[in-house]
Structures are given as C-alpha cells and as structure tokens.
Design goal:
- The chain is α/β, with parallel strands linked by helices and 790 residues long.
- Helix content is 33%, strand content 18%.
- It has 24 helices and 27 strands.
- The chain is globular and about 95 Å long.
- The protein binds beta-D-glucopyranose.
Length: 790
C-alpha cells in the first residue's frame, strides 16, 4: 500500500476526478480503523454531518466518497442534483421511477415474498440511478387513522409491521443497496411532529412501538435507522441515549448507522453522544462548529466521534461494493410488478349478491373522477415521478370490449356540492346495468406533515353515492385512499365495496382485473376500519396538549382495543373477502402442555372449497388466559399467504417461540411468561376465528422474589413460591380448632377480605390461633420464600 504523501505528486499532475478515483482505490484497500487513523478532527466531524441534502460528505483528501440517499419508501425519488441543498421544489421533480403501491396497500397483501420483490426492484432502480441507500421502510404503528402519513406505514400490529419491514429491507439489501428503517420512534402523528413529546409507558413501548422495530432490525438488519423528529417521554428521540444506544445497540446488537430525520437535530453534540451517527441533511455549519468546539473543550470524547465515523464508513464501503449508475432498469418488468402488487393488495370489503366479479353487462356506467385520475400515492417526501400510469377507466374498457361505457365525473375534488354533476351521474346510472363508482380522497387529505381532521369522505361524495344508490341497485364503490374512512352513512346502500388504497402506477390494470375476475382479490386489512372516529383507542388522547401526547390506551392499539372493549368496527383487522371460499380443518399442536423455552408447533389444513383459484392469508393469534398483568384478548403471532386451486388443500405450519407468549414486565424490565392456559386461535381475520385450541404453558422464568416484612397477602399470593407457602399456612390456620369454632357460621373469607393488608398485620390479628408469635412466623416465612434470612 502506498502512503498518502506519495500521492501528492499525482494530485498536482492529474485532474481532481482522477485523483479522487485513485484515492478511493487506496481507501478501499484499507481497514476502517486505518482510514479513521488518517482522518483529522475536521474530517471526522464533517463525515458525521451530511454533505448536501442527499449525500454524505466527500472527504477529498482521503478519497472517501460520498454516498447518495433518497426517499423511499414505495419508489425511488432521486432528484437530478443530489448535491443540492434542501429544496422543497424537488418534491415533485425527481427522475422517473416505478411508483409501487404505498405501504398501507402492500401491507394488505400480507405477502412477505412479494414485498421482498418490491424491495429488490426498488434496489435495482437505485443502482440504475446511482443511489446507495433508500429512505424506507416506514414502520411506525398506526395509532390513529388520522395520522397524515399512515399511507406510508404498514400496520397497527407490531408483529405484522415488523416482518413486512424486514421483508422489504431484505429485498433491497439483497442487491447491495441499503435500506433505512424509519422513524425511530413513536412518531405516530404528524401534528406538531417536530415538537411533540409522545408519552408512552414502558410496557407499551416495549410490546408495541419498539417491538415493531425490534423485529425489523433483528430479521432485516438494515444498513441505517432513521431517528424521528418527536420527543419520547420528554427527550428528543435524536438525543435519547436509552433508545439509540442502550436498546438499539446494546440490547438488539444493531451494527448499522443511525441517521437523523431531516432536520431532527437540535444539539449535535448531545445527539452524537446519544447515538445519532449522521445528521441529515447537510451541510450544517453550526453543527460542525459545535462538534469542533466540544472536542477542543473536552466536552466530547474523540472516541465517541470515532465510533460514529466508523459506523458511517462501514456503510460507505458496503455501498461501494456494488457499482451504481451504469445500467438501466427494466421499466416494463417493474411496471408489471407494480400491477401484481396492487392486485394482491386490494381488499374486497363487501360483495353482496356476488355482484363481483362483473358478469356480461351491456351497459357499464363508470362514475367518479378517480377512474380517470387515480391516486397512486400520497403527498410529501415519498412522492415518486412514475414511469407509466394505468388508469382504471382505460383498463376496464380494454377488458369489456363488448360492453357500452358511460362516464361521468360525479364530484369535484374541492368538495363543493354540485347538483348538476350528481344529476348527470344519476342519469347514466339509470341507464346502466351496473355502476362502478370510483371515490378517491382528495390528495390534500393524505399528506406528510399534517393530519386529517376526520375520517370521512367528502360531503359531495357521500351525496353522490346515496343519490346513485337510489336509482341503481347494482353498485360497486371503488375506494381510492391510503387510510381508513368511515362508511356508516352509505355502506348499507351499496352491495359492493373494494378498497384499492393508493394503488401505485399499475393499480388501474389491477382493479380492472379484479373487477372482471381475472385476479381473485386476496388482500386483508392490516389495520382496523373503525365504525366511527370516536371509537378509536386514542380518541381522547389525540392530538395531545401542551406539546405532550399521552398514549393513554397503552398496549390496546387497534384490534387489541376493539376486542377487549367488544366494540363493533366497520371492518376488523385481518379482514378481506375472496371470490372463493376456504375451509380450515385439522388444527394440531405439538403438545397440550409445553415449556415456554421449547416453543410450540402448530399446523392447520386449508382447503379451497370454491370454484376458482384463490389466495388466503392464514392468521394465527395467541391469547394468554391467565396473567397477572392485563393482556389483549388475542395478538397476532403468525401469518402466511397461500395459493390454492379449487379443491386443493395445503397444510400451514407455524413455529412459536417463547417471545410469542411473553409480555414485558416493567417491574423486572424483562420479557416474562407465566404458568397457565394459552389459547391458540387461527382464522381468516381477527374476528373470524375458524379453529382454536387451549393448551397449558409451563413457565421456566424464575422471577426474583420481592417479598419482605411489609408485603401484603395479595403480594404473597402473586408470588409463585409465596402462594404455596401462604396456602399451606392458611390450611393450618383454618384447621385450628379455636379458629373453626370462632368462624363457624361466618360468611367471611378471612384471606380474601385481608388480601390488601400486610401479612404481618393479619398474623397479629390471628395471633390467638397461631402456635408462635407473629414476628417469629413472619421471619420463618421469609426464610422459606427467599431460601435465606431477609
Ligand atoms: C421525512 C423522512 C424523509 C426525509 C427526507 C423527512 O421530512 O420525515 O421520512 O425520508 O424527510 O425526504
């Protein structure tokens, strides 16, 4: 290896580009430690702050190349000039790329293989466009359907969100492009996202919000994690050491780098100490100065800076292993994938009288602006300039060549009431054999940086649906939106409803194929559609006040809440119809009694009993029936999408491990299980359980015993060993002759009535029936329970 001064001459003779090229080769041959040892403080500080809006800093002297990052998540949004400083105009000026359906759509496919393919295709486009890291997936939980960015997120369930994120990450990274898991953490609303503190208790954080990230990190190993804008329990996520270092690194052993969300850094020194390696976007003179000063004043240990530099360099070197910017990607192939994904993600919500698929109809009325101008994505940083666009209207016409088509706009997107539009729509509805009513939420309702204020369709859309339904019974409402809407006002008036989400550039063909039965719908909801806004778990605690939003519903997010409270929803989590039927049979478990550490195998047979090929999402839920902490009725712990020919049967196997039965106990700061009954439930949705089995779990967890002189009877009874001791003591007392005589005829259960008094107090009350003085008994009991004197 040549040393750096040898290259001085070359620097003078060759042009800068070539010089950098040579230096890059040089750097490529060094270990990260060697590179860091060559860097001065300024260079180290510079690499921890972006060089531009989309790149890391280029360190010319050492030939450390910049890498390029772009949004994400449902397509590549690479601007022409990646070295620009942040520029709002570039939101809509990116180089064309495939616009896949957004996350709320692909999540409804429940198909990890398919999502992996999307990841691979996005990576191929990154490679073609010279992009090293894509800024996705977004794995924030859907705490409220109002969050303006829900279309970018997968689910209300951490298990589903976690595994779908991992599938996407694995797809992207299999091609040598990095993925970024975002936004870490509790960024579940857009309202005041830069200043709000999400107030979340420890158990909720662990079981819901962190769990989604934990799964994605362990199963996907993303190159990057992006920390969110908001605060968590009063501390900015970008300055939260517990989150970024203790949990992410020490516990989960994450070894990629952490970048900030764009503009999430408030104090570069604090954020570096907490664990944010890279500040984005750059350049940030102020942060640079802060770092330099802190090193000079010895407020920042250089080792902390080095650690961040090493993590960033590691990813830069990984990115360099795949050459980028030299090949084109296959536009048609990716467009076809976008169609396939859209088709597998759409959810058939209602299909009375088997109105779908469309039979041979002479006159088909297509009403609604979105048939010609579909919404393919939401607004904000995820906006992609699509390479192509299928419109439902054109695609439907191609598939029903023998039919006559009538078209009307039906409504305007500004929400203005317009009787003329409605009258014209009713006129064609009367003439038609069937009406396809395309209803889209206007783009301004689903946009990054602010939330919706309601979950309704526009007034003029509701009026249109009701008016058309009054003159034509054969209606299919085709919904085009990225998050749940309420349907109570009109759903009983129409026989057919299909949710097409923000369908991506191939959605037009996908919906046409579904309407005519070329594709059998197989999407299932990855989030609950509530009956009304006031039913949602976070209703009372949203959007928060005084810059704090309290996650008062705790672990009861989404279906966990509706199940527990027995609240009727419009459509439950996991729900979706098909043109065929599936039967569930032969549920079997590896054992009726099992130790948590051994796990459990579950299998079930699924048969397609209908007449057409179809796909089913088989869902496994676990319910813990005996637990000292409050638990949801059921929680998703397994899912698989399978395809079946008519009359075909397949066996689906699930392997459950200890974590699938455990809950997080803040008292012990641990995941724990308890002895007792567990219910395994397998079904078509969280509401439609087709098979279940109750089994017995034996916990191997030895929780530390906290009993002492002042513990209450209840506390003794809650402790496994304590319970045995108290039960035997109680038996002895009850059998005491004096006690029997005295309590004869009394209805009072002394032990029950005394549950919340201190055991020592109770012993004193009963001292006349005891063989020893209470203090002596207490001391023996404590020795027994702790195995030593306490
Ligand atoms: C968003 C991120 C995005 C970044 C870059 C931020 O405002 O929250 O999700 O990746 O901008 O566009």
């Amino acid at each position: 290896m040549r040393n750096f001064t040898d290259l001085h001459f070359a620097k003078l003779l060759l042009n800068v580009e070539l010089y950098i090229f040579i230096m890059i080769l040089e750097v490529d041959n060094m270990s990260i430690d060697e590179v860091v040892s060559q860097m001065n403080i300024k260079e180290k500080a510079a690499i921890c702050i972006g060089g531009s809006a989309w790149c890391t800093a280029l360190i010319r002297r050492l030939g450390i190349p910049e890498i390029v990052m772009t949004d994400g998540p449902h397509g590549v949004r690479r601007v022409e000039n990646v070295n620009e400083t942040q520029n709002v105009a570039s939101l809509t000026q990116s180089i064309p790329a495939t616009c896949f359906p957004t996350a709320s759509a692909v999540a409804s496919s429940w198909d990890t293989q398919l999502i992996k393919e999307v990841g691979e295709s996005i990576a191929e486009e990154c490679i073609a466009q010279g992009v090293d890291i894509v800024l996705g997936p977004g794995n924030n939980m859907k705490r409220t359907p109002l969050c303006g960015r829900n279309f970018e997120y997968f689910s209300e369930d951490p298990y589903l969100g976690g595994y779908l994120s991992a599938a996407f990450i694995n797809g992207v990274q299999s091609k040598g492009v990095g993925a970024t898991l975002k936004h870490y953490i509790a960024n579940n609303q857009e309202y005041k996202r830069l200043t709000m503190s999400s107030e979340v208790d420890e158990r909720t954080l662990r079981e819901i919000y962190l769990r989604a990230f934990e799964i994605a990190i362990k199963e996907g190993k993303p190159w990057a994690v992006m920390c969110s804008y908001n605060k968590l329990n009063g501390t900015y996520c970008s300055e939260n050491h517990e989150l970024l270092t203790e949990i992410l690194r020490d516990e989960w052993e994450y070894d990629g780098f952490v970048m900030s969300d764009w503009g999430a850094i408030h104090d570069r020194v604090e954020s570096l100490k907490a664990g944010v390696d890279l500040e984005m976007p750059g350049p940030q003179k102020h942060s640079f100065k802060q770092l330099m000063l802190a090193i000079r004043n010895e407020e920042l240990d250089e080792e902390i800076l080095d650690r961040a530099v090493k993590r960033i360099l590691k990813v830069i070197f990984m990115a360099r292993e795949v050459e980028k910017g030299n090949e084109d990607f296959d536009i048609d192939l990716h467009h076809n994938l976008a169609r396939r994904v859209a088709g597998d993600s759409m959810v058939l919500l209602k299909n009375e009288r088997n109105i779908l698929p469309i039979k041979d109809h002479e006159y088909i009325a297509i009403i609604g602006n979105s048939a010609k101008n579909p919404r393919i994505q939401g607004g904000g940083s995820s906006q992609v300039t699509s390479t192509k666009l299928d419109t439902p209207y054109e695609e439907i016409k191609k598939l029903a060549k023998g039919s006559t088509f009538l078209y009307e706009d039906g409504y305007s997107m500004d929400g203005e009431a317009n009787n003329e539009l409605i009258d014209r729509a009713m006129d064609i509805a009367r003439l038609a054999d069937i009406v396809l009513l395309f209803i889209a939420l206007p783009p301004y309702k689903e946009f990054e940086s602010y939330d919706r204020s309601d979950i309704n369709l526009l007034e003029n859309q509701i009026e249109l649906i009701k008016s058309v339904a009054a003159v034509q019974p054969n209606i299919v409402v085709v919904l085009n939106n990225g998050a749940p809407i309420s349907m109570g006002e009109w759903i009983n008036d129409v026989p057919g409803v299909i949710q097409t989400w923000l369908m991506g550039q191939g959605g037009g063909k996908a919906i046409a194929d579904i309407l005519f039965g070329n594709v059998n719908p197989s999407g299932k909801l990855a989030e609950t559609f509530p009956a009304k806004l006031s039913d949602i778990p976070s209703y009372i605690n949203y959007p928060g006040e005084n810059n704090k939003v309290i996650y008062g519903e705790g672990i009861f997010i989404g279906y966990r809440y509706y199940d527990k409270k027995d609240i009727e929803v419009q459509f439950p989590f996991g729900y979706g119809l098909s043109y065929t039927n599936f039967e569930y049979s032969n549920l079997s478990v590896s054992s009726d009694e099992f130790r948590d550490v051994d796990g459990l195998n579950v299998s079930i047979d699924i048969t397609n009993t209908g007449e057409v090929l179809g796909k089913e999402v088989v869902q496994l839920y676990v319910g813990d029936k005996e637990c000292s902490l409050i638990r949801p009725v059921k929680e998703l712990k397994g899912f698989e999408k399978i395809e079946l020919e008519p009359n075909e049967t397949k066996t689906v196997n699930f392997e459950l491990d200890m974590r699938d039965f455990a809950y997080y106990d803040p008292k012990y700061k641990e995941w724990v299980t308890e002895d007792g009954e567990i219910e395994i439930m397998i079904g078509k949705s969280s509401k439609e359980i087709c098979a279940n089995r109750k089994i017995n779990l034996i916990s191997t967890i030895e929780s530390p015993c906290n009993l002492d002189y002042n513990s209450t009877v209840r506390e003794w009874l809650e402790d496994k060993k304590g319970k045995e001791i108290i039960e035997s003591l109680s038996k002895k007392i009850m059998n005491n002759r004096d006690f029997k005589n005295l309590s004869e005829g009394s209805e009072v259960d002394v032990w029950k009535a005394a549950q919340d008094t201190q055991l020592i107090f109770l012993l004193r009350q009963l001292s006349w029936s005891l063989p020893l003085v209470p203090d002596m008994i207490m001391s023996r009991l404590l020795t027994q329970v702790h195995g030593k004197k306490k």
